[in-house]
Amino acid sequence: MSTRQSSQVRSLQSRSSKSGPNNLIDISTPAGEEITIRHQEGHILVCNACCCGNTEKGFPAVPLETWKSEWKARSIRKRVHLTIAGCLGPCPLANVVLIIYRGACVWLQAVNSPRQVKQVYDYVESMMSAGRYVSLPVQLEKLHFTRYDFDTGSCSPTDHVEEYSAPAEG
Predict the structure, then answer these.
(1) Is the model's pLDDT at 116 over the cut of 50?
(2) CB 97 within 8 A of CB 53
(3) Confidence tier at 151 by pLDDT (50, 70, 90)
(4) DSSP 8-state code for residue 123
(5) Are 90 and 129 in contact (CB under 8 A)?
(6) 10 Å Cβ neighbour count for 90?
(7) What single-letter DSSP state applies at residue 6?
(8) How far apart are CA 53 and CA 50, in angstroms?
């Protein structure tokens, strides 16, 4: 039997269940405390670790300042979070980016230039405008790769989910 509690999204502007920049979600902690966090549409994770951006190992630099300045300039922080992350895993590909948007996972490699960073943000904003996952634009297709068997639009929270049952004690 599941004891999982569902979270309720509430909006500061309207009662719409549609995600937006002012939607908040109440989360119950294991201690029973209610914590309010922003309910976001997506997340951009930029690898900057052991290989990505490590010019001493022969990899191109990660354009970190462009990632940060574009995120701020586009005023999307309340809808899509940016994390400059540790190692995301596929090191030989270098300068890896993971975009998670409304349940879709999109992996990109070799995002080495400010121009490419802006193209990634344009893509994310196109999904924000559509309110859903959209296919990659032509200029980013060559950077795409599949990391897991549920990548690119198929990792919805309801896909491939089975209820976990703890082993019986005894």
Answers:
(1) yes
(2) no
(3) low
(4) H
(5) no
(6) 15
(7) P
(8) 8
Q: Tell me, what DSSP letter sits at residue 58?
A: T
Architecture of domain 42-145: 3-Layer(aba) Sandwich (3.40)
- Please, where in the chain does CATH 3.40.30.10 lie? 42-145
DSSP secondary structure string for all residues of 10-44: EESS-S--S--TTEEEEEE-TTS-EEEEE--SEEE
CB 67 within 8 A of CB 104: no
* Structure confidence by residue, pLDDT tens digits, 59-105: 999 999 999 999 999 999 999 999 999 999 899 999 999 999 998 99
Question: pLDDT digit string (tens) for 38-47?
Answer: 889 999 999 9
Residue pair 77/88 in contact by the 8 Å Cβ criterion: no
DSSP category for residue 120: H
Query: Could you give the residue ranges of the DSSP H alpha helices within 4-153?
Result: 64-73, 114-130, 138-141
SS3 content of the chain, % helix, strand, coil (to 5): 20, 25, 55
Average pLDDT value for the chain: 82
